[in-house]
Amino acid sequence: MTPRNAMSIAAFYGCVRFICNILSSLPYTVYRSEAEGGSKKFTEHPLHWVLTKRANRHMSPFIAHRTMLMNCLVYGWSIAEIKRDYLRRVTEIIPYPCSKVFILHDVSSDEFYFKIPHLNKTLFEDDVIWLKDLSFDGNWGGSIVAWQAQTIKINLLAKQFEDKFLSKSTFVGGIIESGDAKNEDAAKIIKKRMVEGLQDGDDGGFGLVVLSHGTKFTKVGMTPVESQLNELFNHSAKEIAMMFGLPLSVLGNTEVQSSWGTGVEQMFIALTNSVLIPIATQFEQELDYKCLRKDEILAGIFTRHNFKGLLKGDQKAQAEYYTKMAGAGFFKLDEVRDLEEMDKLPDGTGATAYMNGSNRPLALLGKEFKQSKNNKKSNGNEDSASES
Question: Least CB-packed of 45, 46, 86, 103 within 10 Å?
Answer without folding.
Answer: 86
